[in-house]
Amino acid sequence: MICLKTFIYLSSFSFFVICDRRVMAEVRNNQVILRDYVTGFPKESDMNIVESNITLNLEQGSNDVLLKNLYLSCDPYMRILMNKDLPPEVSSRAYTPGSPIRGYGVSKVVESGHPDYKKGDLVWGTTKWEEYSLVPATQILFKIEHTDVPLSYYTGILGMPGMTAYAGFFELGSPKKGENVFVSAASGAVGQLVGQFAKLHGCYVVGSAGSKEKVDLLKNKLGFDEAFNYKEEPDMAAALKRYFPEGIDIYFENVGGKTLDAVLVNLRLHARIPVCGMISQYNLTQLDGVTNLPSLLFKRVHMQGFNVSDYYHLYPKFLEYLLPHIREGKVVYVEDKAEGLENGPAALVGLYSGRNFGKQVLVVAHE
Fold this sequence. Notes:
Layout: E1 7-10, E2 14-18, E3 23-34, E4 47-55, E5 65-73, H1 88-91, E6 102-112, E7 122-128, E8 132-135, E9 140-143, H2 160-172, E10 180-183, H3 191-200, E11 204-209, H4 212-220, E12 226-229, H5 236-243, E13 248-252, H6 257-264, E14 267-275, H7 294-298, E15 302-305, H8 315-327, E16 335-339, H9 344-350, E17 359-363
Parallel strand pairs: 10-11, 10-13, 11-12, 13-14, 14-15, 16-17
Antiparallel strand pairs: 1-2, 2-3, 3-4, 5-6, 5-8, 5-17, 6-7, 7-9
């Protein structure tokens, strides 16, 4: 753009190029960059914090949306996207070494070229791990209309994890009052909600977690009937038999591997297994084998994987169901917040060793 009159103001954070017709502001934009594809357990050093700059103006005629990222969601599936060779179904979402990683986030619209969004709107959807992101409008999933709850909730209970718990439990689990429900990784972003939904529905609920503190959380704050530390159970199948002497009707699968194998021999006839994730397998170069698959046949089990994006059309119904429960204190949510983009790699890597206590959220900026 050619300017007849141009003045440049410098500061430690930004500079502004002021023209006769337009103001172009350039600001610092720190990013979390993937250094290279990852094998095995991810490390903080697999990611770099890189300082770049971004102009806070859209090009004329652009339909994109410029976002200021406020909260970023740390989710187990992100580890899969760090792999070099991915199945065709997910390869289009793979991270690119040398570029920012992506995930779900809560953002504020800085400028919009799309008619559905305007400056100041709060939104949640897919964004990059950086302070500001220029995204196609299609990456924004929903405007945030209800702000009487914490904005960070839209990375968790009112965002992708909440929808995952809701769709997996109600749409795939098809629960009936009085049924027996087992939730693995039960203190995580999704598991803690599945257990509470099950209790509201009149089910008996047991969860597994990886520490005494998390077990206490499940029983004393989240309302699970029982909970146990899977690390203290040398025989997982026997432990499940102890908690479910009559068998399991719904297993909400978050873990895979040996836990899944133990569950299979403890299922009741016509049990359901919504497969949300298999976090125990994400960092392995040789996956665990599952030996008890014949139980699926003998017990007429319905086991189905799912992608939450197939259920986003239910989001208004989901909010109608959940918001009153949150406001009345019938459903609670535990968050583990890390402050600052520079702490993003540690927060994300901590998921895979169970370091987080509740839903892991990265706070980039306060509104």
